[in-house]
Amino acid sequence: MAPLLQVRGLSRRFGGLTAVNAFDMKVAEGEFVSLIGPNGAGKTTTFNLISGLDRADAGEAWFDGRRVDQLSAERIAALGVARTFQHGRVFGNLSVLDNVLVGAHTRFNAVRPWGGPVAELALALWRPRSVREDYAAREQEAKAILARFGDRLTPRLDHPAHTLSYANRRRIEIARALALKPRLLLLDEPTAGMNPTETAEMETLIGELKREGLSIVLIEHKLDMVMRLSDRVYVLDDGRRIAAGRPAQVRNDPAVIEAYLGPRAASPRAEAAE
Amino acid sequence: MNSFIDYTINGLVVGNIYALLAVGLALIFGVANLINFAHGSVYTIGAYVGCAAITFLRTPLPLTILVVAVPCGALGALIERVALRPLQGRARIAPLLATIGLSFVLDQLVQLVASPNPRALPADLPDWRLNVGGGSIGPMDLLIAGVGLASAGLLYGFLRFTKLGYAVRATAQDRDAARQMGVNVDAVNSAVFAIASALGGVSGLLVGMYYNHIDPTMSFQATLKGVVAVVIGGVGNVPGAIVGSLLLGLTESYGVALFGTTYRNLFAFALLILFLVLLPNGLFGGRKAVEAEPLTGTFIAPSRALRAPAWLIAAAALAAFALPFGWPSPYLLQTLTNAWLAGLLALSLTLVAGTAGQMSFGHAGLLAIGGYASALLATDWGVSPLVSVPVAGALTSVIGTALVFPAFRLRGHYIAIATLAIGEIVGLVILNWESLTHGAMGVSGIPPLSAFGFEATSARAVYWLTLAALVAFALLQARLSSSHIGRTLRALRDDEVAARAHGVEVARYKALAFGFAGFGAGISGAISAHLYTYLNNQTFDSQLSLLAVTMATLGGMGNILGAILGALALVGLPEAFRFAAEYRILIYGLVLLALVRFRPQGLLGTA
Fold first, then answer.
1. Between chain A and chain B, how many beta carbons pairs sit less than 8 Å apart?
2. pTM for this one?
3. Of B449, B422, B445, which Cα lies nearest the Cα of B534?
4. What ipTM goes with this model?
5. Across the interface, do A74 and B504 touch by the CB < 8 Å criterion?
């Protein structure tokens, strides 16, 4: 079976810097894959390329048998790829519920008819029953998604997102991405800035999503969590893939240890040989 | 061929004048990340100060330049200290609106002190001309070139070799880092405003001498020209601003040579749009210029909207409908009719600028399209106003959206500049497309509103009609705002990138917002045309666009009720208190200044 996501030779250069260099990656249906590597390794750039927010200079990305590296971000989202952002990009002036409902944008079927923007406008003003039902269904879904975060978000449904804590804003982002009912979820450091309790809570939630069969790519610096959750791990350094494989394999790969801890820690034997 | 050289010389001379203006704008943008809309006002004040010095004190030229530069520089520093420094850390739109308010205040003050009539500004220069390859150069040309080159040289030396100059460049590159390193950023800002304003004032003096003509309305056009030059050169880039100015001067001069003087500004704004769409970083700007622009969400002050209970709104609407029975003064009804028409404009603006976050500084252009469409249909084509008004609304919706469409990928300040230019272009096309619009003569004899043989000519009938249109439109807009489209528009206002990542087709929703808003503004313009019975290219000018911005800001961006209140307060009140009518622009300016300082979210809060 063809993989759900396949990336071949993906490259992105910024001036003289090659942020992503001939990167290859595969994600099978239902698989949990992590991208790790030091800061500036090109992980987020890879997400930007896959999600269509940035254009690759070379290489291809295929999603579900369709080439997507030339598609716009909105088309790729409509195909079922959702993502969160490293530094958090909630809609600050929108309520928590509205944030999640924007995430469901591609699923408002009755609201966005064929017939173009004029028909959409007419339906928004007229709001026949099909549209009202669509609104109600999406809202119910959104509330169900928010309920997955315990009582972190549910009591704050109509608070503007900018008034919430940092950790809660990260949660809103994940809820917003889930509202798209994605087939592939790209999580960019979902636990950044969270304390150990909050991190553990997030890990539980991500583990649940995995068990439900959602295909996930995770960027994360907390390696314990990565090792526990991942089916496979890709390690990037300087835009290049330096290792890939099951967590246990990657953990002991000298190239990986070198990238994280520097050359000395990586090769005690080489040193001894000298 | 002779004339070609003459036009080249003229282009370079005018370009030199623009450069004096544009360099200041570029410097200010560099350190304060702000387009200073009050720059043209300082330039006008420079021209008037110079005029006073020459006329009353008979100052010799070098002294006149000094007499102009020093107070203008001081004024610049004062503007920075009093109006802009308290706004640091506010939403990015706040200082921009403050400079617009300042320009209203300063322009009106000039008008009150020096009378609105144009004056001559005699240049006491020797009367010889130098022949250059078929063209000729006079002492005025040389003077302007000399002042231009000397200021450029001095500025270069200042920025390159003095300690303060280093500080200015450091602040322009990274304000926070400069502050961390001990640069007194406030002092830098002050110095930059002073230098920029001194140059701007001298530029005004030279222009006045060059054309032997000054008047208080020259300010706005000057700001626009400076902005065009700055965008061409790459916003915030000082040498770029000089090259942009010369290029603009030459383009205008050749354009005038080929098509006539009424095309001068059309060329300038077409050049601006061309650059914004194709090369938004200008000739010399790095990539940084656009990236540094914040997301539109931070462009507008966040707040929670105040909600008025539905019964109160319904009661107010009923009272408004009943008013002609209780208080049938035609003067009052006429004033309120104007307020309702302005309310339609403010509603339209608050949707695109507030809800969708696309600040429009050219909204009067939509009124012009709607007004002309209905007027021409009714006069030249004999269409009944019953048909021509809605058709005008639809046409405005389509044409307005199509005109703004190329600017959809711009953000923040840039969309504001682009819409400003588009508004100007609409007026200029109307002026120049004589076969369709009757050009400068305007359209006269526009029939009154009528339907089925009944003519709405009484103050009451017109009052009810406009009020009904306003209420209907407000209800529709409220319905839109509460729909998924409204939510989507607010999302793309807050963060376009995140919206796209969730499947929001940004251009489609911006087009929807502009289309809907265009319809309302078009109807407002069309009704106005039938009430005024006469239109020309200046009926709906940029001042009205900026007034619309003031109304929407006063009410609270995106706030429907707020827009109507804003229109009522700014159009209705000064008119109702007759004494205030002649100070109207001054009042608008002061309101805007007070708002951004003390209540940036407007009366009812952003929605």
1. 105
2. 0.91
3. B445
4. 0.93
5. yes
